[in-house]
Each structure stands twice: as C-alpha cells, then as structure tokens.
Amino acid sequence: MTATRKPAASDPPAMSYGLLPDLLGFHLRRAQVALFRHFAHSVGTAADITPGLFGMLQVIAANPGLAQSRLAEAMEVERSTIVKVADQLEARGLIERVPSAVDRRSHCLELTETGRGELARIEGLVLAHEADLTAKLTPAERQTLTRLLIRLAE
Amino acid sequence: MTATRKPAASDPPAMSYGLLPDLLGFHLRRAQVALFRHFAHSVGTAADITPGLFGMLQVIAANPGLAQSRLAEAMEVERSTIVKVADQLEARGLIERVPSAVDRRSHCLELTETGRGELARIEGLVLAHEADLTAKLTPAERQTLTRLLIRLAE
DNA sequence: GTTTATTGTTAGCCATGCGAACAAATATCC
DNA sequence: GGATATTTGTTCGCATGGCTAACAATAAAC
User: Fold this and answer.
1) How far is residue A57's CA from residue B112's CA, in Å, rounded to a whole number?
2) Contacts with A126 from chain B: Cβ below 8 Å
3) Where are the domains of chain A?
4) Which SS3 state, helix, strand or coil, does residue A71 take?
5) Inter-chain contact A130–B22, Cβ cutoff 8 Å?
C-alpha cells in the first residue's frame, strides 16, 4: 500500500505548469515577483519608494554631477525615460538638476540635503529587507546565486 | 609599479553603482532583462509572442478546460488581468472560451487546433532559446541556479 | 428563500518603458 | 571660419502589464 490516497471528487484538480518549470525565465520571474512583494512590504510601507527609483537614487548618489544621458546609459534605458524619473525625484525634493558649468546642454543630477538624509534612511531599510529576504540562504548560497545571475546576464 | 595606468583626461569617469551590486534584486533584474532581450531576439522575431503570453498558453495547454479564475490563481494575477490575456489569445485564434457545462458563469479555456500547432512550434523556439541562453552554464550550475531561485521565491 | 460568494467583465488608473520629432548647444571636418 | 553632424534634454503618443472598484449573472450556504 502506497501513501497516495484515493483522490476525492472535491479535490482541487492538480495544476500543471507544463514546460514552465524547466525554464529559467519562469523561476527568474517568480523570484523577482517575490522580491518585489517583499520590498513593497518591508521598504515601501516605510518610505514610498520602488526598487527602480531606489536604484536610480543609488547611482546618482554614487556619481555626483552625473548627466542624465550618463544615467540612462548606466541603467540601460532611454534618455526619455530618465526625464520622468528625474521629474519625480526632483518633485519630491530628493535631487536637483544643476546646469553643467562646461556644457550648457546638460543637467548634472545632484542629491539635495533632503535627498541625502532620505537615502541614508532608505538604505537602512533596503539592507534590512535584503537580509530578511536572503535569510533563507546561507552566505555561500547567496554568493553562488549572485555569481550565476551575473554570468547569465553578461 | 602597479599595472594601473595614469588616468587621462579623456577617460570616461568610472561609473559606480553604489550599493546595488550587493543587492540580489539588482542582479535578478539584470538577468531578467538579458533573458527578455534574448527571448525577443530568438523567439519573438519568429513567432510574435512574449514570455508572459507563452506562460499563459503553457498553463492553458497543460490544464484543458481551465476556468479563467483558476488561471489567474495559477499565474498569481487578478481575474481582470486574465480577461485581456484571453482576449488577445482568442483574437489570434489560439484559444477558445468554451462555456462550462456545469457552471454557467465560467468559461473554460481550450486551445484551438491552430493554437496547438502554434504552441508546438513556439515550444521548439523556446527550448532552443533556453539552451542557447544557458549555454554559458554547466548543467549542474543551471540546476543550482534554478533551485536557489525556487528557494528565494517561496 | 434570503443572503453570501464566485465568475467574468468593463472602466479607469498607474507605472514603466519605447520611439519619433525638436530646439539648443557642442563637435567635427573641410 | 563656417557647414554639417552629433549630443542633450524634452515632449508627445503609444504599448504593455498590472491594479482596483463596480456590476450583472449565477451558484452556494444557511
């Protein structure tokens, strides 16, 4: 006698995902959705920010005076996409568009004082979120995962 | 004497990503963008389909007669999102909404003959895309990556 | 038989992204 | 030096993909 029980008529019909479990993209997507949800719950409730905007802020903070076009290249999006992002961050007082001293076409993105403070606060939340999320993995596994993702992406 | 050369004025100023490289979400996103691009180039050009729609088709094919609400649960999206997806797939002749025999509210999603043929063709393209994409990894690494992603997502 | 829940649908909204077109400013090239 | 290209930020329109809220029809629960 096996451990499998007789299926009852009331059983939810077992769901099949077909080929999907064999595809990396399926698991990549699920992991990302899980991460987004976790971010929204742990960081988003306390700071009104998304992973995307946080990434932009990080790069702006790490490269003072960055022109919008450079940011676009770094984030691998179009220049026109950056306009909206900069509008948002500027409207919230986190960054400023400072006219470049050497090129009158370009705007240098700079964190404001408010922006610096907010970013420091958000970084704490993000690091806590990261620690919480990866608590399921050992440090070695975490590193392995990161490395494999990098190799996949390049 | 080290191997570092004297930075010239014409050098592109080295870009920093701040904290981002320490965050799993950053690498997850990059990997996904890379995968989407690869999918678009290898599958999308030959079949006019996206990873999302392909996933829906897979689940419909693997669960004949699935009601829209069940599909929504399986894909973890809202019922209303499925309406648009089903509209698209139906407009393209790949699936049909068959009225349920036992519940006059629900529509059972079924592949059409065309849909079956198309899906078979697309599956070939997707598997080739997958093989190509993961050629950078050994089979063991591929499996490790999948397992770690699953553990992260649950 | 009345109330509650589920199903599919519509409508409107938001976020993220792209592409095309544009004017201003800068580079390049004879 | 002056014509021609290129770069920069911007706007506008569009597409995708997702959400919520409301609704009518139907089914289930009490």
Assistant:
1) 48
2) 19, 23
3) 48-153
4) helix
5) yes
Backbone angles phi, psi at B108, to 5 degrees: -90, 130
Given B24, B33, B133, which is nearest A145 (Cβ)? B24
In angstroms, the separation between the Cα of residue B2 and the nearest Cα of chain A is: 26
Amino acid letter, residue B117: G
**CA-nearest residue of chain A to B131?**
A23
A136: which DSSP letter? G
pLDDT one-digit tens code per residue, A55-67 = 999 999 999 999 9
Pick the CATH number of B49-153 from 3.40.50.720, 1.10.10.10, 1.20.1180.10, 3.60.110.10: 1.10.10.10
What is the CATH architecture of A48-153?
A: Orthogonal Bundle (1.10)
- B56-72 residue pLDDT tens: 999 999 999 999 999 99
For residue B19, the tally of other CB atoms under 10 A from its CB is 18
For chain A, strand residue ranges (E) read: 66-67, 95-99, 107-111
Residue reference for tokens 């079924």 = B110
Residue A120 pLDDT more than 70?
yes
Q: Write out chain B in H/E/C secondary structure.
A: CCCCCCCCCCCCCCCCCCCHHHCHHHHHHHHHHHHHHHHHHHHHHHHCCCHHHHHHHHHHHHCCCEEHHHHHHHHCCCHHHHHHHHHHHHHCCCEEEEECCCCCCCEEEEECHHHHHHHHHHHHHHHHHHHHHHHHCCHHHHHHHHHHHHHHHC
Give the closest-approach CA distance of A124 to chain B in angstroms: 11
Residue whose Cα is closest to the C1' of C27: A103
**A12 pLDDT more than 80:** no
Top residue of B43, B145, B147, B154 to mutate, by most chain A CBs within 10 Å, is B145
